[in-house]
Hints:
By secondary structure, the chain is of the alpha/beta class. It has a single domain (6-146), classed as Rossmann fold, CATH 3.40.50.360. Helix content is 32%, strand content 17%. The chain has six helices and five strands. It is globular. Flavin mononucleotide binds next to helix 1. Belongs to the azoreductase type 2 family.
Amino acid sequence: MSENKLTITAICGSLREGSFNRRVLKAMEELAPKHWEIYHADLSMIPLFNSDIESQGDPQSVAEFKENIRQADGVLIVTPEYNMGIPGVLKNALDWASRPSKSSVLIEKPFAIAGATPGGGGDNSVTSPGEADIASYECLHDAGSEGSHRQRSRQTE
Ligand SMILES: Cc1cc2nc3c(=O)[nH]c(=O)nc-3n(C[C@H](O)[C@H](O)[C@H](O)COP(=O)(O)O)c2cc1C
């Protein structure tokens, strides 16, 4: 019996080419059930949020990012923590996606978050307070709270 396709927007919070978090995301993709279709968002193309730019219409990279999330069944974020919070590039992308606030593509969107770091702290703030950062978009319905997708990963060199 074939299972229904599940579309996931995958977001890596690191732009670094050799990113551990990107490697974790790729490993997750390899392990994901075959009926998952994963789209990798490219945060490097998303400009810094500026409501002057927004008022002229979303740049193409932002429009594509938002449309992909809109069509996805869920969002999977794998990110380092930077100074005990989520990296600026990730926050910037989510800020774009949070607009317009009343019809944001993030509203009620299930999400899961994981983080990898070579440090001893284990990305704690990404997977706990950082999760709250993301949930504070008032939008993202935490799939983990339903006991399903919350992940915590650590990778060392
Ligand atoms: C600006 C900056 C801040 C960081 N802050 C933290 C931190 O708060 N906690 C932590 O565990 N690691 C921190 N790190 C280390 C990162 O977890 C580590 O560099 C990690 O490899 C980055 O992820 P990536 O490999 O996916 O690029 C920080 C790194 C940078 C560059």
